[in-house]
Amino acid sequence: MSTVKEVLDWIKSLVIALIFAILISIFVFQPYKVDGHSMDPTLYDQERIFVSKLSHTFSYYPDYGDIVIIDSRVERKRSLLDDILENPIFSLIMGTSDTHTFYVKRVIGKPGDVLEFKDHKVYRNGVALDEPYIKEPMEFVSDDKWVVPDGHIFVMGDNRNNSLDSREIGYIPLDHVMGEKLFGNGAAPKQ
User: Fold this and answer.
1) Which residue from 175, 177, 169, 174 is spatially nearest to 146, judged by alpha carbons?
2) Dihedrals φ, ψ of 105, to 5°?
3) Which residues form the active site (predicted)?
4) 185, 183, 189: which is closest to 29 by C-alpha?
């Protein structure tokens, strides 16, 4: 009988550890893998990065220049159920694969910011950004002024000429900012 009790104790310990790991990866800390070249030269395709989920958990804005993970499905609301079902640990247990697209991008604008794209540069509130981390001068230009609405951010990839970002998908709702890069192989200065 002591063998059965010992096995049950092990199973109980493993289940508790698994629940704890899922909670940490949903609310605190999670690894991600960069998919694509939109953040070259700062981050590279298939590079692993570690992300703080605290900004998502407590709904606060990341800083200018922060590298963030975003849910690109900006046309829909997110819920806690999304966070649970899209969690890699839960997906592994359930045998599901992530069919959604999460992007790694840099924060360029926050609510109220006026963004302009001219002279191969990004202007925020009339001031050209100093962006030593971008791969090459940006080809994108626009005569429009983009005003970031309340509850949203504007993100761009460091490889401006090869990035699907807020210029195409729109402003990113705060609840679609999944977290901020803590560390990985690549590093870039904050503004």
Assistant:
1) 169
2) -145, 175
3) 38, 105
4) 183
155 neighbors 147 (Cβ within 8 angstroms): no
Least Cα distance to 164 among 34, 31, 39, 62 occurs for 39
Domain boundaries, the chain: 29-78+100-184
pLDDT digits (tens, 9 = 90+) for 71-110: 999 999 998 888 888 877 777 777 666 556 889 999 999 9
Residues marked as catalytic: 38, 105
Cis amide linkage into residue 132, ω under 30° from 0:
no
DSSP assignment string, 125-177: TTEE---TT-SS-----EEEEEEPPTTEEEEE-SSGGG--SHHHH-PEEGGGE
What is the distance between the alpha carbons of residues 88 and 73, in angstroms, rounded to a whole number?
18
pLDDT at 115 over 90: yes
